[in-house]
Design a protein that fits this description.
Largest sheet: 7 strands, antiparallel
Number of strands: 23
CATH topology of one domain: Elongation Factor Tu (Ef-tu), domain 3
Number of helices: 3
CATH superfamily of one domain: Efflux pump adaptor protein, beta barrel domain
CATH architecture of one domain: Beta Barrel
Shape: elongated
């Protein structure tokens, strides 16, 4: 009896499992509508017209120079070092060149010698003029010869004085002075080093930069060149001073568009009496401009460029259509576009050239 009951239960379990097996699994080759891939899309919205554009730039000192010794010499003393503030005309370094000083002494001696000869010639000519008053005492030819000798000796004095001044100028080069007020930003050499032709002439002795007045160079895109005005105020910020805004005025325009970047270089003068800003600082500048009403900005990912075109993918009646556009101003996340795109159009948020033109496409609902 127990065996009959066990067999009956086993058959019931097998029948139950076999009956449910056909209903519990769906057809693996069947894809529902919910399983179809859908792309993320955006709706084009009108953006307010721009009143300023953000441009990167770098601060430069208004004046900066490398100081090189101009004569062969040895460094005797250096009176300044990195970070020292200097005034215009201040003595920065002294060089030593004994042969130049000897040449200066020799040139001075030649001046004195030429002056002595000149004074002798002048006295001889004066005596000739007095003697000429006595008839027959001296010939006219001798008087003219004395005058010629006087003129020649006077010119020799002038020549020796010029030579002395040229040597003196070389000696003056042994004293290196500041060409303008600024700060010493680099010093490469030390006392005892030989400098000048044949020495370490490729290395500057000192580098000086002006800090109380700076300049900011900005490359303005060609589309906004007509909006640039001399004297316009430009606000900018630097990473070092977060939250602080600095300003300057446009002072110079290059009046030339660079073909590689399609931009014009402008310069902004910056007053830096506090010396808070430093040359070499990277800045983010806001340049005041104007833009057309109805500007369209879309995410950068929605614009794609290849070897042939720059385009967006517009979704219309379930079809992906490539529409050629041109880029305009670029912000941190968006880009301005120009083309056959209007407010209300639906675009793919991420354009891809793997989506064929005029191909059917499914998108997520646009919010």
């Amino acid at each position: 009896m127990k065996q009959i009951i066990i067999l009956f239960l086993a058959g019931f379990i097998i029948a139950s499992c076999g009956g449910n097996n056909s209903d519990s699994h769906s057809d693996p080759g069947k894809i529902t509508q919910e399983d179809e891939f859908r792309y993320t899309a955006i709706q084009v919205k009108e953006a307010p017209p721009l009143r300023e554009i953000n441009l990167p730039g770098e601060i430069e000192s208004f004046y900066e120079t490398d100081l090189y010794p101009r004569v062969s010499s040895y460094i005797n003393k250096i009176h300044v070092d990195i970070g020292d503030r200097v005034e215009k005309g201040q003595l920065l370094a002294e060089l030593d060149a004994p042969e130049l000083k000897a040449n200066l002494t020799a040139a001075f001696s030649k001046i004195k010698s030429a002056e002595a000869v000149f004074h002798a010639s002048k006295a001889h000519y004066n005596r000739a003029l007095k003697t000429q008053k006595t008839p027959g005492a001296i010939s006219e030819l001798e008087v003219e010869a004395a005058l010629t000798k006087l003129i020649s000796d006077s010119l020799m004095v002038v020549a020796e004085q010029s030579h002395f001044e040229s040597v003196k100028q070389l000696v003056d080069y042994l004293r290196i002075t500041a060409p303008f007020a600024g700060v010493v930003t680099d010093r490469r050499l030390a006392p005892g080093a030989f400098v000048g032709p044949g020495g370490q002439n490729s290395v500057p002795l000192l580098k000086i930069k002006q800090l109380d007045r700076l300049r900011l160079r900005l490359a303005v895109p060609e589309a906004y060149i007509s909006d640039i005005r001399i004297g316009a105020k430009v606000n900018f910020s630097v990473r070092t001073f977060q939250g602080e805004v600095f300003s300057g005025n446009i002072s110079r325009l290059s009046n030339s568009v660079r073909p590689d970047t399609r931009s014009e270089m402008i310069e902004v003068d910056i007053s830096n009496s506090s010396r808070k800003l430093k040359p070499g600082m990277f800045v983010s500048a806001k340049l005041p401009v104007s833009a057309n009403e109805g500007s369209i900005f879309i995410p950068k990912s929605a614009v794609l460029s290849n070897m042939e075109r720059t385009f967006v993918i517009k979704v219309e009646d379930g079809t992906a259509k490539w529409v050629n556009v041109q880029r305009g101003d670029i912000t941190s996340n968006n880009v301005q576009i120009f083309g056959d795109i209007k407010v209300g159009d639906i675009l793919l948020k991420v354009a891809s050239d793997e989506i064929p033109n005029n191909s059917p496409i499914k998108i997520e609902p646009v919010i």
